[in-house]
Amino acid sequence: MDLTLENNEISKIFKDSKSSRLDILAVDDNGIKYDIEMQCQKTKDIPNRAAYYASKLFTKDLKENDDYNKSRVISIWIFAENVTERNEPLSEAFMTFQPNKSDNYEIMTDNIKIIYLELKKYLINSHNYNDKLTKWVDFLTNPINLDRKTIEDKDIEKAKKTLEYISTNDEERLIIDKIVEGRNDFYSAKNIAKEEGIEEGVKIGLKEGLKKGINNGLKEGKIEIAKNMLKKQLDIKLISELSGLTIDEINKLK
Fold it and tell me: Within a domain: residue 210?
């Protein structure tokens, strides 16, 4: 399964609506949307915020005559601290019918799923040692001193290289932040203008977003970042996402 990173801004429906920025938004080959949120502290609003994000994503991109079954959302919340009284580290939440005198508990729809992963409750042992999830928990909780089997996982090896790279290159990380900020402004301006139906606003939004993303990032800086990432043998798609260069432009740097 391949995932594609999407613009993490959820635009307003109305002028006075609440806007949101997700940590990570991705879409897989089947069109399922994934929201991934990392939380270091426990706050009272988490359950309602999770429901709000999931519901906004569910309606995102639905057109007038689209089937509601077309939209599927999986919202994954990873917590450094315990946030529930539940015993297990992994919990899934759905919209449900509650039991009554005549009916049992029943899932109403699984097209919206919210998953909690509480890292402190996750115990790594001989039974789950080789699980993919266990390896990711190992990486998230202790990225410096990873277990040998975790390091051997290709996806986690790629994540570790990326973490090491952005953690030790302050100047380049600043440029990457500017590129990402400019790209988000680009999409945000485009969405706002589109919603208001102002053609001129679209043109201005695109122009300003591109200007900020390109000028602040600096073309030379992007190329230098990409070259250094290629030396570190990072994935080309990831280099493109972080540097702002196209895959064709990156291939020409080899």
Answer: no
- Which backbone phi and psi does 26 adopt, to 5 degrees? -135, 160
| CA-based nearest residue to 245, from 169, 160, 183, 167 | 183
Give the separation between CA 174 and CA 178, rounded to whole angstroms: 6
Which residues make Cβ contacts (< 8 Å) with residue 42, sequence separation at least 6? Answer: 79, 81, 82, 83
| Residue 212 belongs to a domain | no
Contact 192, 10 (CB under 8 A): no
State the Cα–Cα distance between residues 196 and 186, nearest whole angstrom.
16
- Contact, 18 vs 12, CB < 8 A? yes
In the chain, how many domains are there?
1
Return the SS3 of 132: helix
Neighbours of 17 (CB within 10 A): 12
pTM for the whole structure: 0.66
Distance of CA 122 to the CA centre of its chain: 22
In a domain, 53, yes or no: yes
Place of tokens 């030396």: 231
Over 70: is that where the pLDDT of 141 sits?
A: yes
Backbone phi and psi for residue 58, each to the nearest 5 degrees, phi listed first: -60, -40
Tens digit of pLDDT for each residue in 169-227?
Answer: 666 666 666 555 555 555 555 555 555 544 455 455 555 554 555 455 456 667 877 78
Q: Is 95 among the domain residues?
A: yes
Query: Residue 13's domain spans which residues?
Result: 3-122
pLDDT digits (tens, 9 = 90+) for 96-107: 999 999 999 999
